[in-house]
Amino acid sequence: MAVAMEKSRGLIGLKGMSRDELESILNRAAFWEACPNKVEPVLQGKFVANMFFENSTRTRFSFEVAEKRLGAEVLNFAAAVSSVQKGESIYDTVKTLESMGIDAGVVRIKAIGVMEELARTIKVPIINAGDGNNEHPTQALLDLYTMRKQFGSIAGLTVAIIGDIKHSRVARSNLWALRELGAKVMFCAPDNMHAPELEAYAPYVSIDEAVKADVVMMLRVQLERHDTGLIRSAEDYREHYGLTVDRAAAMAPHAIIMHPAPINRGVEIDDELVECERSRIFAQMANGVPVRMAVIERALLNG
Q1: Distance separating the N- and C-terminal Cα atoms of the chain
Q2: What DSSP state is assigned to residue 224?
Q3: What is the mean pLDDT of the chain?
Q4: 58-69 and 137-151 helices, crossing angle to 10°
Q5: Residues 1-48: pLDDT tens digits?
Q6: In the chain, what are the domains?
Q7: Model's pTM, two decimal places?
Q8: Up-side HSE of residue 71: CA atoms within 13 Å toward CB?
């Protein structure tokens, strides 16, 4: 059932990826979503290691489901019970698994810059499952896929991304891909959560303007940053930047609500809106599986 892919390669980020390549991944995801078989063993005999040096629920399990649906042998690495606790570097850990014969690695790390080093020095394809505040390419791809299913095309859409832009890898990957596909991106954030280096690519607007977009994408409030003074309180954040029921009432009839999760209900988004008719939050999670199937297949099958 597999088709020939262009060449074996990983996925480190979406910045600089062409429109054709983005569309190719989304089209292949649509193929896998429509596949009637729960398991299609196109990657039988391939070993994929999920190496998460940072906590994850949705991304880790979504990758594992995607890998198993493709028939791959899956190795799940947990940093907490590994030699990382003894001081082993991330590079040495990944190199060790490469030496044991894995065919690809899915990696999530906090440190910025390490992912690029791994891509340069590790011979097997590396797929970025989130690195620091740099990129989260598969999250953005599933977001794009969700938008395309809803609207038919991404070109011409206005997408508002609301929240902690400064620390968000989701915002960055979405920004690069959405612009490439012809969407207009707006940011909305408290002043101390702006990312100055991105201001040339997307304007910052008020919350009242942001909720008028075609897609209103809320980001998780990192409540742990309350201790550092970035937010005064959860209540204060909701009052000024949360998607409340009243603010949602000002959205256009066709507009949708998105969120990469995990969700702080009653903070960045009111509880009543998480599963409302216009919400696509759980649809995003479901779409992560076929999207990651397309990404893994792309990395492992040669043209």
Answers
A1: 14
A2: G
A3: 91
A4: 80
A5: 433 333 448 999 999 999 999 999 999 999 999 999 999 999 999 999
A6: 19-136+285-300 (3.40.50.1370), 137-281 (3.40.50.1370)
A7: 0.93
A8: 13
CA distance 155 to 153: 6
Token pair of 200 as six digits: 């040339």
Of 198, 187, 195, the residue nearest 160 (C-alpha): 187
The rounded distance, in Å, linking the Cα atoms of 263 and 271 is 9
Compute the distance between CA of residue 190 and CA of residue 263 in angstroms, rounded to an integer. Answer: 19
The pair of three-digit structure tokens given for residue 238, joined into one six-digit string: 């909701």
Please tell me the distance from the alpha carbon of residue 148 to that of residue 232, in angstroms, as a whole number: 37
* Alpha-carbon 238 to chain mean position: 24
Token pair of 199 as six digits = 């201001």
Per-residue pLDDT of 245-264, as tens digits, reads 999 999 999 999 999 999 99
Structure tokens at 39: 């398991």
Q: How far apart are CA 261 and CA 58, in angstroms?
A: 8
How far, rounded to the nearest angstrom, does the alpha carbon of residue 24 sit from its chain's CA centroid? 17
The residues, ordered by sequence, that sit 6+ positions from 24 with a Cβ below 8 Å of its Cβ are none
Q: Assign 73 to helix, strand or coil.
A: strand
